[in-house]
Automatic annotation (TrEMBL):
InterPro entries: Cro/C1-type_HTH, Lambda_DNA-bd_dom_sf. Residues 20-74 form the HTH cro/C1-type domain. GO terms for molecular function: DNA binding. The keyword Chloroplast does not apply. PANTHER family: HTH-TYPE TRANSCRIPTIONAL REGULATOR XRE (PTHR46558:SF11), TRACRIPTIONAL REGULATORY PROTEIN-RELATED-RELATED (PTHR46558). PROSITE patterns: HTH_CROC1. SUPFAM superfamilies: lambda repressor-like DNA-binding domains. It comes from the Bacteria. Gene3D superfamilies: lambda repressor-like DNA-binding domains. The keyword DNA-binding applies. The lineage of its organism: Bacteria, Pseudomonadati, Pseudomonadota, Gammaproteobacteria, Enterobacterales. The gene is immR. Keywords: DNA-binding. This is XRE family transcriptional regulator. It comes from Yersinia pseudotuberculosis.
């Protein structure tokens, strides 16, 4: 029977350390920042990334939450198990996207329209630059 003190079997954690480091870097977090989110010492994050030790089950859950991925993705690396919105590198934009997800449909449509306009404007600017 599993309990919080047991660690996950190595079978489920192939390339876990590499995946953890990549996710942390994609989210633009330092080991210190991730450790602060988990309330642990930064050296523990480093040991996980170097695969010197495996995290306990309760930290697997906390890591998945902090890195905004499913436990499946964190442990197994299965594609399609994390939301593409979390691939946004800009922290402020990512947070705004998460908050916008809770807005009414018409407010979300207005935000989408504004973003479409901003993106179109940038594309026009780039097209003008390349034709000069």
């Amino acid at each position: 029977m599993w309990n919080e003190q047991l660690t996950w079997p190595c079978l489920f954690m192939t390339d876990f350390g590499k995946r953890l480091a990549a996710l942390r870097k994609t989210r633009q977090l330092t080991q210190q920042e991730l450790a602060n989110l988990l309330d642990i010492q930064p050296r523990m994050v480093g040991r996980w990334e170097q695969e010197q030790v495996k995290p306990q089950f309760d930290y697997i859950i906390k890591l998945a939450q902090a890195l905004e991925v499913s436990i499946d993705y964190l442990l197994l690396g299965e594609k399609g198990t994390h939301s593409p919105v979390f691939d946004i590198k800009n922290k402020r934009l990512k947070e705004l996207c998460k908050q916008a997800d809770g807005l009414k449909s018409e407010d979300q449509d207005m935000i989408c329209h504004f973003l479409d306009m901003a993106i179109t404007q940038e594309k026009v600017k780039q097209a003008i630059k390349t034709t000069r």
